[in-house]
Request: fold
Amino acid sequence: MHITDIYNQAAAEGRARFSVELLPPLKGDGPGRVFEALDPLREFAPVSVNVTSHREDVKYVERENGLLERHTVRRRPGTVGISAAIMRRYGVEAIPHLICGGQSRYDLEDALIDLDFLGIDNVLALRGDNLRGEHSFRVHPDGHGHACELVRQIARMNEGVFIDGEVEDCHRTNFCIGVAGYPEKHCEAPNPAEDMRRLKEKVDAGADYIITQMSFDNASILAFIENCRAAGIDVPIIPGIKPFSTKAQLTMLPQIFHVDLPEVLVREVEKCPTNREVREVGVEWAVAQGRELIAAGVPILHFYTMGKTDNMVKIAQALF
Reply:
């Protein structure tokens, strides 16, 4: 079932729902940790599980002569496979992330064909991060430099058009295409207006819905939704919430995700003697955010859980 259909159904019924986001297993791990994270959430009926995608990393191995040998490795492969395993085990929609970074158009086309064969018809199209150690995004020689181009490729496959146009009268895919939106502006956008223009480009290219980057400030989220509507973006918008869980996130989240942390939240986290108390503060903040957004008429909330979900169980008990 398409996420847009689930969104519209939840809106019509007046019943708020939620989705969660997880990492694929590290190379060498089985699916056990993912299932351990999701099993406790089953009773709360999440509508979907997003599975992140990670580009290649660089590893240096010392040779016998003392020189370093450069290797390219993928530490978290298996996004497509674990997505299929989640759908089979839980009967919920899995949303694998597709990224431009490190992928050719043909790699992406092959991945989309695999997803179609597996019955996975919801995807999130992203440009992806810079390669570690690089300060700008390096485009694959035969790839995409922007998520908008990836969206267009997926939308054309839905129309039965492949990269080289070599297939006639072919099976058409039926992907529901999600993209990312940034309530506090993408870090590379020169200003909010340009950031909104880029988002509208993705929607005009064929995006069906938007999931926002995490934000700890509902005023920013609601203003973002209002600004999207004013810009002519009328697709469903699903706010993203990150349950705060460690003191280290006070510096890590702004550095990596370029988000602002409300002063009140920072003060409450700084008062906590241990991360156990921090997680409780994070639960309370996420529940308060969720209640306010649900009261504002938001049908689906997206939670960036990533690993352990004990805090998400408490949030689900309070909200859903």
About this structure: The chain is about 40% helix and 20% strand. Strands lie at 17-22, 48-51, 57-62, 68-73, 93-99, 122-126, 176-181, 209-214, 237-241, 300-306. Residues 275-295 form the longest helix (21 residues).
